[in-house]
Amino acid sequence: MYGLKFPHSARTREIRFVLNGSETSVRVPPGYTLLETLRYVLRMTGTKEGCARGDCGECTVLVDGVPVHACLTLMSQVEGRSVLTVEGIDRQHRLIRAFVEEGAVQCGHCTPGIVVAAYHLLSQVPRPTEEQVREALRGNLCRCTGYVKIIRAVLKAGEA
Ligand code: FES
Ligand code: FES
C-alpha cells in the first residue's frame, strides 16, 4: 500500500481502485484529490498540474473511460473505479507516434492531458474530423499556443 508520506497522527483512509490496469491501494487524508494522489503519493508525475481548479485540462485522466479533471476529483470518488493516466497508454499507440512525428509535443506541459483527451476521442470516434478534434480538445489549454501541430497529430492518428 502507498501513502506512507503522512504522519501517523494524520487522519487517513484506505482507497482501493484500479490504476492503469493494476489493483492499487492508497491511504490518504479526506479531501485528497486524484491529482494529488497520483503526483505526490504514487509519484506518477505524467499527469500535470496547471491551474488546479478545472480550467486548463492539464490533469485530464479517464475514470471508467470518461475524461475528468483529476484536480477536481476526490479520491473518494474513484474508490472501486478504473483510472487511466497517460502512463497507461502504450508508447507504440498510433496517437503517441503521431504526436512525435508531427512535433506536437512543444514544451510538453499540456501534452499528457491532451493525449488522454484525444485517446478518449479516438476510442469513441476512430476517424474524427477536424471539427470533432477541436471540440474534444476544447477544454485543454496549450500555453505554447501551438494547436496546429496538436490537431494535425490527432487527425493523423485517426487516419493511421
Ligand atoms: S490542473 Fe486540473 S484543470 Fe488545470
Ligand atoms: S506544448 Fe507547451 S503548453 Fe502546450
Describe the protein.
The protein has two domains: 13-87, Ubiquitin-like (UB roll), CATH 3.10.20.30; 89-159, Orthogonal Bundle (DNA polymerase, domain 1). A hairpin with a 2-residue loop joins strand 3 and strand 4. With 160 residues, it is α+β, with helices and mostly antiparallel strands. A five-stranded mixed β-sheet has the order 2-1-5-3-4, sandwiched between helices. It is elongated and about 50 Å long. The protein contains six helices and five strands; from the N terminus they run E-E-H-E-E-H-E-H-H-H-H. The chain has helices spanning 34-41, 75-78, 94-101, 111-124, 130-136, 147-159; strands at 13-19, 22-28, 60-63, 66-69, 82-84. Bound molecules: FE2/S2 (inorganic) cluster (2 copies).
